[in-house]
Design brief:
The protein has 349 residues and is an all-alpha fold. It has helices at residues 2-15, 23-35, 41-48, 51-63, 70-73, 98-105, 121-125, 128-148, 155-158, 164-187, 206-213, 222-231, 244-257, 259-265, 291-294, 296-323, and strands at 273-277, 280-284.
Length: 349
């Protein structure tokens, strides 16, 4: 048992910092799909001409922020995952108040790694639910600013990026898209488990294989499949709670439950190997068929998981918009494009 725990510990620390949920195509596609699930007429009109912007923004935390110097971006890395197993809790048992989790569990034993202590809850356990919620709150702030100010009255004002209405709408749009990245992360099963890369289950290397290599071979109708699957989900439980954290927790419960199904579909030719030598881990990934030959085995699972994230993201966008008082954002026409939004430090630690 002790050796298995050691294996799991080393698998976690060597994979958590390189976890990129769904890869670039997956994140962009599920966030673009969410645009077509929005029902509020005014918000839908605003988003209909901007699915490409939402797709770009959903990748910012991976393609831009992770390229920043480590002293800037390191506080944001834990926002990509959440592993309640280390707290000794099931997903559904996790409190919604992150500060209480930090107060209660800092300095306590790591329930997954014998002999280890939880010195930093953000680094050891992650914080994806609260990271998504942070950008929800920032989007609300932007939308409220747009609501409190007049839309542009002529072409000149439309292109005035300092106009308060334009500033607010731009802030809303940018944070809506970035929010989508973390909602997408939580739809990927290996972002809600300590065994990020499957080594404890002898499926080492599953993370990137599942989320990026396999997804690369999906056909061009990937988005339409996600939208179709999403529209078939009638009032899912993960949209029924009052708070964003509770809904994200409900989504994570489904993702975690899918891990067994994913591993069952992963017909490895030869199991992975992870050995520990003088405190260092030596990994050899499982042998499996090339993704080009095997992607069909995972397609239904992945489409379902991406569809869940798209449904919840569209729901969060609509809740944000309603909470801000439903501003006239369809009047926004600035050409300002959020190529490289400034990194945002977590505010919930």
């Amino acid at each position: 048992m002790k050796s298995l725990i050691s294996v799991l510990f080393f698998a976690v620390i060597t994979s958590s910092t390189t976890a990129y949920s769904w890869g670039g195509r997956g994140h962009a596609t599920l966030c673009e799909a969410a645009v077509f699930l929005v029902k509020s007429p005014e918000l839908k009109e605003f988003l209909t001409t901007r699915p490409h912007i939402m797709g770009h923004l959903c990748n910012i935390p991976d393609i831009y922020w992770k390229s920043l110097p480590s002293d800037i971006r390191k506080s944001g890395d834990p926002g990509h995952y959440f592993n309640p197993e280390k707290l000794g809790l099931k997903v559904e048992e996790v409190p919604v108040d992150y500060k209480k989790i930090v107060e209660q569990y800092t300095g306590k034993p790591n329930k997954m790694n014998e002999g280890q202590t939880l010195y930093s809850i953000p680094d050891d356990v992650g914080s994806a639910w609260w990271r998504a919620d942070q950008f929800y709150r920032l989007a609300v702030e932007g939308a409220k600013k747009a609501k409190a100010n007049n839309p542009p009255k002529d072409w000149k004002e439309t292109q005035d990026n300092k106009l308060p209405f334009n500033e607010g709408t731009y802030q809303m749009m940018t944070n809506m898209g970035i929010m989508g990245h973390f909602v997408g992360d939580l739809g990927q099963p290996f972002h809600v488990t300590s065994d990020h890369d499957g080594y404890a289950a002898n499926h080492g290397g599953i993370h990137s294989y599942y989320e990026e290599q396999v997804v690369a071979f999906f056909d061009g109708d990937m988005m339409s499949k996600i939208i179709k699957e999403a529209k078939a989900m009638k009032n899912p439980k993960f949209t029924q709670y009052e708070s964003t954290i509770e809904n994200l927790r409900a989504l994570s419960m489904l993702s975690y439950a899918d891990i067994k199904e994913v591993l069952k579909a992963d017909k490895v030719i030869k199991p992975s190997v992870l050995t520990i030598d003088k405190g260092m881990s030596n990994k050899k990934a499982a042998e499996r068929k090339p993704a080009a030959e095997n992607y069909k085995a995972f397609e239904k699972l992945i489409i379902r998981q991406m569809a869940r994230s798209s449904v919840l993201l569209a729901h969060m966008w609509e809740q944000m918009y309603k909470e801000a008082g439903s501003p006239q954002v369809s009047e926004y026409g600035s050409y300002l494009y959020p190529f490289t939004p400034d990194f945002v430090k977590p505010d919930y630690f």
